[in-house]
Design a protein that fits this description.
Elements lengths: L2 H5 L2 E4 L6 E3 L2 H6 L5 H4 L5 E4 L2 E4 L9 H5 L6 E3 L7 E4 L3
Antiparallel strand pairs: 1-6, 2-5, 3-4
């Protein structure tokens, strides 16, 4: 184990497989509030060319997006596979 491994606070191991998906991107275009753009603490949701795009690589696994998308219920949310995702170190 090197010094960087000992000192990390947050570590993210990216999986090739997305653990969160937008079910129907067209449905996001109909959403007036687009609250996922403003509530994701990791800013994984972006508006590109008037389309909501999700990038799972920096997801903090907080679950905010699945709760906030209550109007359209257009987010498929799962935890990452074992060994992938974010690791937090406390203390």
């Amino acid at each position: 184990m090197n010094l960087e491994d000992k000192l990390f606070l947050d570590r993210y191991i990216v999986d090739d497989e997305a653990h969160i998906k937008i079910i129907d991107p067209g449905l996001c275009a109909l959403c007036d509030r687009k609250q996922c753009l403003y509530t994701c603490p990791a800013q994984c949701y972006k508006l590109e060319e008037k389309k909501v795009v999700f990038s799972y690589e920096g997801c903090l696994e907080c679950g905010t997006c699945r709760i906030i998308c209550d109007e359209k219920k257009n987010i498929e949310w799962n935890y990452p596979r074992g060994g992938f995702g974010i690791s937090y170190k406390y203390g």
